[in-house]
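[job 0412] stage=fold_complex status=start
inputs:
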Amino acid sequence: MRLTRRYRFAASHRLHAPSLSEEANRELYGKCNNPYGHGHDFILEVRVRGRVDARTGLVVDQGALDALVRRSVLDSFHMKDLNTQVEAFAREVPTSENVAKEARRRLSGAWRETFGENGAELDAVRILETSKNEFEA
Amino acid sequence: MLITRKAGFSASHCTARPDWSAERNAEVYGESANPHGHGHNYELEVTLSGEPDPVTGMVMDLKELKGILNEEVVHPFDHRHLNHEVPPFDRVVPTTENVAREIWRRLARRFQDGPPGVRLHNVRLWETADVYVDYGGEDER
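[job 0412] stage=fold_complex status=done
writing structure:
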């Protein structure tokens, strides 16, 4: 059984690779390279996989999942500028690919201590940047 | 090839175990343990696998699939209180997971002798716009 929970965060970013020239960045990222940045109402999907507990009928404690996602991801991403306020994006371009990877890294790091050795697995982390773009890590 | 058909139903439920105290139920199920129940507009996505028939070009006639979804899920579940009116939820807690599993079982029975080569592949059940489960029958094996 897989259970997917959706969360939302509003954040700004600018796509700019420091190793490329200004011109190459403009060409590669187009509007997303605007020096002032731009933002989205991102949707974060967290997909969990495991067996349904025979007593509770639940695959995961959703309260614990919500608290983990809030603590590990939403508190640092929501209403923030990703480039300047999230440390990982000082080193990596905050494309939605990298945002999904960073969210997954953060959740993986605290997963076992939250859900235990025999608890549900983290199956996938997805970022829906707009209603047209989706990224899965 | 995979084909998916959507359906929906509105139903009330209470997720709590009668053999547990109110405190224990609130701890595990939170607000959903309210003994008076509450409701959702459930959205169902049923995915089948198969190959298009060389004559009709269809994996399965969607009218037929719609009929099965109505008979097995929409008619028995829509505008019902799951715990009181839809077995097995008088004994099984109607969590999203258990409702999806029950829908799988009802549909799987119909597809045992369904059109040749067509298999039930996945049941996705949205309880709200922010939570859904996917079940492909893995616990039945």
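[job 0412] summary: The radius of gyration of chain A is 17 Å.
[job 0412] exit 0
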